[in-house]
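comment on this one:
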Amino acid sequence: AELPGQMFETPLVVERTATLSPSVRHLVLRTDDGAPYDFLAGQWVKLYLSGGLDRDYSLAAPPSRERPDRIEIVVTRVEGGPGSNELHTLTDGARLDSLGPSGLFVREAHHLDAPALYVATGTGLGPIRAMLLEELAREAATAPQVLLFGGRSEAEVLFEAELRALVATRPRFRYEPTLSRGSDAWTGRRGWVQAHLRELAVTVPGAHVYICGLSRMTDEVRRVLRHELGIDRRLVHSERYD
């Protein structure tokens, strides 16, 4: 993939919002003038908020042929965080300025024929979702795609219905959520994502691994991949959001 050559200051309008979990909001934004927003899956945008604040958010959906003017983000409300709290209160039609796109956490053209293992926690799923939706839309492609997503409880599993639907319609896609504090009723994987790396990595030999989440998780996953599983660091790509 060729990175967009420059960043643009772009006025945006809130098109719609949705609640994904008790603390996470999904915002769909569009360019104010209807012009296409040129970016790659995995990149991020800077949003300018009131009081001189600005915050960076990964784009949570790939570029759309049908709606090239549209971008999506997912925002965790941080207790006492003025930026996230403002974004959680925006209503449809609200306007805000942006600068972007930015970021090198993207799937390059020579990655696409290889299998992929995606590891995400919390809203780190945003850029991973963008990559996955773009990849799974390539109907002629055959490379296996595995998503390992970590959360604390069932309430924090993001885009659950969408991901389950993809499993049902895309045989090459495998979705593996794990919870560190799942209820007694939870029948899926338990514990942190790094506890499941060895089992899943062997199912996709030669995979490129894309990791997004807080630094503590991304550092530990990289360590396990490199030092315990012997995976070439050129196959490991990560982005942290703290």
